[in-house]
Design a protein that fits this description.
By secondary structure, the protein is mostly helical. It is built from 16 helices and four strands. A four-stranded mixed beta sheet has the order 1-2-4-3, with helices on both faces.
Length: about 400
């Protein structure tokens, strides 16, 4: 297994380099260009390409650091040294030692990435006219984002290492259950604990916009009780809407920027897409599929970790950087499966949107505006789409809408 994992790691590195090349090169074809020019100007396409290519060199450097960081942290011996120091000051508490180690690891990683975060999310977002944040607001936002992420990750890591300790060799069967429980809890609590830290949420009451949205919901057979607007304009000019929750706690959130830049019919069409995710239980299905996939990943980690751990058991927190790296490599090769499932769900939601509204022209105009507002790149390479894309390419979605009436006899 050691030789196989080394081979996979080499493939991982080579593929990341290859994907970087493909991403820069793009996947422009005659058919894509012909379709794009029906709805976008040359200037639209040029601006989207410039935004897509922003910070290419910095992006490559960040990927290299992300790859090397856990390896250097572990194989330099610093991870073992740090865990020993923390064991002394943790008063014999394994949970405290684990939480402190996770905190140190997360803080160091955050500080290494901070210059890149500043460049990409502040400098370049201002350069391309998206960000509405002052430098002070950007600092506050990143502190909050770091704090929330750190708390969540420390809790999950501590729970995982407690499971490793208590379950012994049977941890493979328990870890997926623990992660599933956290997935449900986080999905349930996100609208109540996390979202309010970043956004001001209000009931969606936008006059002429409200009626077509509820008409769409009624056509879809959905009793829409929770429709919210959030103040994305506080941060940026990006437009979107999203769906979260499961069971009785499903909600649709609309960016105020989406309302500002789109007609009532277009906003209703976007909401119909989110209602499709709601109707077909996509959040729940995604969590369940991830649960079964985590058994495979857990088994792969169990047979790989000991061969590189220098005698450490998986229950020793000093192995966290190595565990993180092994997990990164394996999940990289399972990403195409996750991406495929996600794209299928998005196609289902798009189809639901079209069947519900019966207005493919509105669907197309809303897609075009979303692409223009977000400077979405139209010529993504097909192999990158296959491997990473959670949504079908924008041109594919527009083409599907163009052909919808004929294919579905709507």
């Amino acid at each position: 297994m050691k030789v196989l994992f080394i081979a996979l790691t080499v493939c991982y590195v080579l593929l990341r380099i290859f994907f970087t090349y493909l991403d820069k090169k793009g996947g422009k074809t005659e058919a894509k260009e012909k379709l794009a020019l029906k709805y976008f100007t040359d200037e639209d396409i040029k601006k989207a390409k410039e935004y897509h290519d922003r910070g290419f060199g910095a992006s490559a450097a960040r990927k290299i650091l992300d790859l090397l960081f856990p390896l250097v942290f572990f194989f330099s011996g610093f991870a073992v040294y740090l865990s020993q120091v923390l064991a002394v000051i943790s008063f014999g508490s394994f949970i405290l030692q684990t939480a402190l180690f996770a905190l140190f690891y997360i803080v160091i990683q955050f500080l290494i990435n901070l210059p890149f975060r500043y460049y990409f999310s502040y400098v370049l977002e201002h350069k391309f006219g998206f960000s509405n944040l002052t430098f002070k607001d950007w600092i506050i936002y990143n502190i909050k984002q770091f704090a929330v992420g750190a708390v969540i990750n420390i809790i999950i890591i501590s729970a995982a290492y407690m499971t490793f300790t208590l379950a012994g060799n049977n941890w493979i069967w328990f870890i997926p259950v623990v992660l599933l429980a956290f997935e449900f809890i986080l999905t349930f609590l996100y609208p109540y604990l996390v979202l309010p830290l970043f956004y001001k949420k209000s009931n969606f009451e936008q006059g002429e916009y409200t009626k077509p949205i509820f008409e769409v919901a009624n056509k879809a057979g959905i009793k829409l009780k929770k429709l919210f607007q959030i103040n994305e304009s506080k941060y940026s000019k990006h437009t979107n809407a999203f769906f979260t929750g499961f069971g009785p706690e499903k909600s649709i959130y609309i960016f105020d920027t989406l309302v500002k830049n789109n007609t009532p019919e277009e906003v209703a069409s976007v909401v119909a897409h989110e209602a499709g995710h709601w109707k077909y239980h996509h959040v729940l299905k995604g969590i369940i599929l991830g649960f079964f996939g985590s058994f495979v990943i857990a088994w792969l980690i169990a047979v790989t970790f000991p061969e590189f751990a220098n005698g450490l058991s998986i229950a020793e927190v000093a192995g966290l950087p190595l565990l993180s790296f092994v997990l990164t490599v394996y999940t990289f090769f399972t990403t195409p499966i996750d991406s495929f499932v996600s794209r299928k769900m998005e196609v289902t939601a798009d189809t639901f949107e079209l069947r519900t509204t019966q207005k493919k022209e509105v669907f197309i105009s809303s897609m075009v505006k979303l692409a223009k507002d977000n400077k979405s790149y139209l010529y993504t390479d097909d192999f990158i789409t296959f491997w990473f894309a959670s949504h079908p390419p924008m041109l594919d979605r527009i083409k599907m809408a163009e052909e919808f009436k004929e294919v579905n006899n709507a």
